[in-house]
Amino acid sequence: MAMEGYRGFLGLLVSALLVGFLSVIFTLIWVLHYREGLGWDGGALEFNWHPVLLVTGFIFIQGIAIIVYRLPWTWKCSKLLMKSIHAGLNTIAAILAIIALVAVFDYHNVRNIPNMYSLHSWVGLTAVILYFLQLVLGFLIFLLPWAPLSLRALVMPVHVYSGLLLFATVIATSLMGLTEKLFFVLTNPAYSTFPPEGVFANTLGLLILLFGALILWIATRPQWKRPKEPSSTLLQTNGGAAEGTEGSVAVNPGNNLDKSDSELNSEARKRNFALDEAGQRSTM
Question: Is the pLDDT confidence value at 120 over 60?
Answer without folding.
Answer: yes
